[in-house]
Design goal:
The chain starts with 6 loop residues before the first helix and ends in a 25-residue tail after the last helix. The longest helix is centred in the middle third of the chain and has 19 residues. It has one domain: Hyaluronidase domain-like (Orthogonal Bundle), CATH 1.10.3450. Helix content is 57%, strand content 0%. It is built from five helices and no strands. By secondary structure, the protein is an all-alpha fold.
Length: 136
């Protein structure tokens, strides 16, 4: 299992995110991200993947404050930085997160006028960053 540095703070940041305390989640996750050495040959993408998690919290903070343009912009960067993050966060259900983010991207694109057609409904909840679960 690959564990990020300062695992307790990582899980605290995820918990804050899941409870929609996005600004606080961003602060905690950013502190963990900053603690990761820039040069880690054994896990070269860990810092980038953590940056994506920080950006995810920032994106939803923007959305919660009524800034869909900022949310969409940061969400796009977060999505790019989270590509391949399964190697850094093997215990997280990133497939579920990606599916939920697809709905949010559509909604944010529509709310900023980049989609044509009927408006996308606002997703009922923010994405959940949780453990990988086995199907029954």
């Amino acid at each position: 299992m690959t564990m990020p540095p300062n695992n307790q703070d990582f899980h605290r940041g995820l918990d804050l995110f899941n409870r929609a305390h996005f600004f606080d989640a961003h602060e905690v996750l950013e502190d963990v991200w900053r603690s990761i050495p820039r040069d880690q040959p054994s896990r070269p993408h860990l810092r980038l993947h953590f940056q994506g998690m920080v950006q995810l919290a920032v994106a939803f903070h923007h959305e919660s404050k009524g800034n869909p343009v900022g949310a969409r912009s940061v969400l796009e960067r977060a999505t790019r930085n989270l590509k391949g993050a399964d190697s850094s966060f093997p215990d997280l259900d990133l497939d579920r997160l990606r599916a939920e983010l697809t709905l949010w991207r559509r909604y944010l694109e529509d709310s900023t006028g980049t989609l044509n057609g009927p408006g996308q409904p606002r997703p009922k909840r923010t994405p959940f960053v949780g453990p990988r679960t086995e199907l029954p």
